[in-house]
């Protein structure tokens, strides 16, 4: 990325690459006088300063985020990141089996109830996308 770009613009490039334009556009459309500074903060720091670091790459970061969201029981964010992981660029896209492995690992370290819920949520998304037969 160009050095002439500001941190927000660099973060927005990463955010769009990882989450997709549709999700980011929807999120930005919800920005208002109350939460606008938060949107700016996460774009500059989470999406530029962290997701912009080259050491781990998007695929590894996706795996880490899914694990963290299960641990925190932040299921709305988990769902968002499962969708993004399945729809992302080929080089950072996760397969259903990779997502399953994240959830299995989380069962040991985060607890069976958290993993059970994560399996249900991810399964719904996989069925919706035609990646898992209907129950």
Describe what is shown at a glance:
Helices cover 73% and strands 0% of the residues. The protein is mainly alpha-helical and 135 residues long.
The residue fraction in helices comes out at: over 70%
| Strand content bin | under 5%
Low-pLDDT residue intervals, each spanning 5 or more residues: none
Rg over C-alpha atoms, rounded to the nearest angstrom:
16 Å
State the major sheet: none
Question: Structural class from helices and strands?
Answer: mainly alpha
Number of helices: 7
Query: Cα distance, first to last residue?
Result: 45 Å
Mean pLDDT value: 95
Characterize the overall form.
globular
Q: What multimeric state do the chains show?
A: single chain
What are the secondary-structure elements, in order, as H or E? HHHHHHH
Number of strands: 0
How would you characterize the overall build of this protein?
With 135 residues, the protein is mainly α. Helices cover 73% and strands 0% of the residues. The protein contains seven helices and no strands. The chain has helices at residues 7-19, 21-29, 36-50, 57-72, 75-87, 96-110, 112-128. α1 (7-19) packs across α2 (21-29), α1 crosses α3 (36-50) and α5 crosses α7 (112-128). The radius of gyration is 16 Å and the shape is globular. The chain starts with 6 loop residues before the first helix and ends in a 7-residue tail after the last helix.
